[in-house]
UniProtKB/TrEMBL annotation:
This protein's UniProt keywords: Nucleus
UniProt GO MF annotations: DNA-binding transcription factor activity
PANTHER family: HOMEOBOX-LEUCINE ZIPPER PROTEIN ATHB-14 (PTHR45950), HOMEOBOX-LEUCINE ZIPPER PROTEIN REVOLUTA (PTHR45950:SF10)
Protein name: Homeobox leucine-zipper protein
Classification via InterPro entries: HD-Zip_III
Species of the source: Striga asiatica (Asiatic witchweed)
Amino acid sequence: PEVLRPLYESSKVLAQRTTIAALRYIRQIAQETSGEVVYGLGRQPAVLRTFSQRLSRGFNDAINGFNDDGWSLLNCDDGGDDVIVAVSSAKNVTGASNNISMIGGVLCAKASMLLQNVPAAVLVRFLREHRSEWADFNVDAYSAASLKNS
């Protein structure tokens, strides 16, 4: 079975879906503001929306701060912005109890992929089976063993 597959849609379909979702979102906010919709049992969608926006803003701030912390963004020329990879230029990561030497390391890989009905165990097994395709070949044996056991 196909576990991971690219998400490709025509620009027309994508524009229609985005527009419809935006209009529904605006209608929902208007109804909440006017009091047309009353939520029971402690549901507060405005609070959840604010929390979600803060999480997103915090993640974006963290991504934008990578360069200040020694991370470099790699350019993946695949015809678009489908993949973003950040690599550390730091040579040593020092732990509290031991020193782990890792050369480089991918911190963030964002891809336009669609996961449909994929349990976490299947995804983890897939990543372990295809580790040689995404893992750093210079990682030492201790680090590889700790990654394998996690």
